[in-house]
Specification:
alpha/beta; Rossmann fold; 3 domains; 6-stranded mixed beta sheet; 15 strands
Amino acid sequence: MKQRPTSVVVNVLLAASMIALAGCEQAYHLNRNQNAMSTENFTPTNPTGVTPTNPEIPTQPIVRGPKSAMNVETFNAAANQVKKIDFLFVVDNSGSMYDNQKKLAAGFKNFANAFYRRADLDICTAIITSDRYLGRTDEYKSGTYYRERKLPCTKPAGSTAWSAEQMQAHIDSLISSFEEQVYVGTYGDGYELMGKSLVSFLYNLNAWGEPIDPAKRNSFFRKDAVANITFITDENNYFNSGVVATDGSVITEDKNDLPYVTGAMDPTDKRQGVKNYLDTYFGAVSPTLSYSTTSILETTRPANIIPGLNTNLDALVKAVGRESTESNINDSVSGYTDVYAKMADAIVLRASAFNLSRPIAGDLTVRIVRLNGEVVTLSVATDYTQQSPTSIALNPGILPAIQTGDKIQVSYRYML
């Protein structure tokens, strides 16, 4: 009987607890229902793309950008410098070109002494005219005309066994031959067909109407060399632009200004047409071969005789890009020496392109890593140029800083 009061207390406490729990559960259901009501009745100000329970969170999946990663590639600097170069000179042989051809010859000697004599360079040279006549010799002028003139290379077959004196005598002879051969005469046609003559040379055409056969491609340009094509003319157009009346109006356009291949050129842009021919030709020689153009021309002449057609050589220089340059044909002999100096800086002294395994997407850094561990970070534009999404080249100004054993380290971001 003494335990009874305790049982009563416990039972009272248990009953109170159960009432409290029931009250909590009822309150929970009430609050939950109130929340549901307030949510269902909520109308967002911008209902598109938001959740019913939280207007701040989009229901659409988050779109993430493409993934990328960093890549580092290392090259031997010395092994990638230019060793083989092919120069082609396209020389205007119309009646007004005598003095200019002589200046081109006079300016060549210093250039050749500096570079053609270098033991580490293998240079080949050829000269063609701008004439519409495609025969390789001119029988009706008693054999005195040669449209194509190929000079010996600086390192012909067997030259590795020559003495130093024999090599110097060979270069002396080559320089003299150029000075003589670059005077192509002044009896060519007055319509300077610079681009057409070039394309005909590239594909060994013997007549304007002859179709281009890639199998007959001229073998002058070597697949492991850097190529440069130099035009010299006292015009600023590279093809027969048509017959112009005395009042300046165009009567007819020469439709045969370039050998035509379907899809090979834009008929409204002859400059781009020549670039297309060059890209196709050099792409077939070697996918990695780099070419450039140099235009020595009359910069004061009208560039576009036919309205709407870009026919000028300086535009070709801009279209081709790379190491292409231009100069004024009216410069003195010392000016022509400067032209050759430009060619040396842009072509002979530059390093070949470093070809990367993936396209550059960003974060490009180029460094010189030396044998002693020193690292030199290069500046874009000043020290190197990105030539394409997959290649960079050192600029001429940085080349003297390259030491034996240097490596070129290229780090960049690429897309996965």
